[in-house]
Amino acid sequence: MSPLFLQSITAFFVTLVALVVLARLAPTLGLTDAPSARKRHSGEIPLVGGLAIFLTLVLGGVLWGDSNATMITVKGAEALWVFMGCGAFLVITGALDDRFHLGVFMRVLSEVLVALVVIELLNLRVMHLGDLLGAGDIRLPPAVAYPFTVIAIFGIVNAFNMLDGIDGLLASLVVTTLLTFHFFTETAPGFVSLFIGSSLVAFLVSNLKLSPFIPKTFLGDAGSKLLGFIVVCLLLAAASGQVGGKKLIEPVTALFIVGLPLFDMVFTSMRRVVLKKSPFSPDRSHLHHLMQDLGFSNRRSLMLIVIISLSITFLGLMLHRAGVPEYYKLLIFLACFALYSVLVSSAWVVARRVQGMTTAVNVRFETTEPAVASNTTTTP
User: How much is the pLDDT for 371?
Assistant: First the structure.
């Protein structure tokens, strides 16, 4: 049996078993998600998807971590376990947030601490931005590269966290991100990609209720932050010549791989600031909320968003393969964001009108229904 196939099958079935066991423990642990004005699901759903995926990843590290070269390995397995430790910290703090609803300060602090550990112990930082201005390679001094990398890790972790809003969305986006990452870098997947990808397929069986024997679960903040952290570590490793001694992609190329999560995070944060709200305040202003307000079902919203994400990534892949200069890539990426902002802003106007028409129809129906019922009861 192929080692890759064995790893994938192991990750898939171990995740399924972990989901079933943890779903039964979730009510006791208080790790359930109840419906609310922002969360339109029925019943309390266990928030254990991230825990199951991380436990499966740890098992993979124990069984195969030392025998597989991974994109995050700098000094053998030592780097892998630094990565695992950071992942464990994010999963624990994310689970605590799911349980006790930690404040913004604690959430930000935990992500910044993880970024600092990654930079200090793995020396995983962005020192070169590439030829973004057409005047040669932009090299960041250490005093600038340090905070720049912290911001990059914090931003991408939160970009993926913010997109976890409808069934199957974040898991599908991370699976496609991992696939396109290996297309961009032309590298074979290591056990990290295999385990995370296979675990997410198992999670989709649960999250999308594809089997009557597997309970429905959500990733929770523990899962969304873990997945964002994995993606940003892979991107930093690929874009940094310090890791493995070879730069596989330029930083501007990496932007296309996570284009849609970045677009959604930046646009939503800017929109909140314009409305004089905190950029961290939860609301129904993300792309998946827009799709719902336009009247699309969750499954259609899922397909549309994945298609949009793949379109951005495919554009970046074509530019990468064609050898387009980096400054042109940056201009094209910014133009894509500008187009996205215009289209989404216009769509929100339409969505508000649709919601207004729906409300008006419901109000009219509610005001006329009692009169009809009254006439019916008094008619001989």
Answer: 46
Exposed e or buried b per residue across 308-325, where buried means at least 16 C-beta atoms within 10 angstroms of its C-beta: bbbebbebbbebbeeeee
pLDDT, one tens digit per residue, over 14-28 is: 999 999 999 999 999
- Domain spans, the chain: 3-358
CA 281: distance to chain centroid? Answer: 18
Residue 302: predicted pLDDT = 95
Query: Measuring CA to CA, which residue among 179, 164, 208, 210 is closest to residue 305?
Result: 164
CA atoms of 205 and 299, how far apart (whole Å): 14
At 374, list the tokens.
């009254």
pTM for the predicted model, two decimal places: 0.88
Closest-CA residue to 315 (of 372, 268, 253, 251): 253
pLDDT of amino acid 359: 59
Question: What was the pLDDT predicted at 356?
Answer: 74
Burial class (CB in 10 A: 0-12, 13-18, 19+), 99: middle
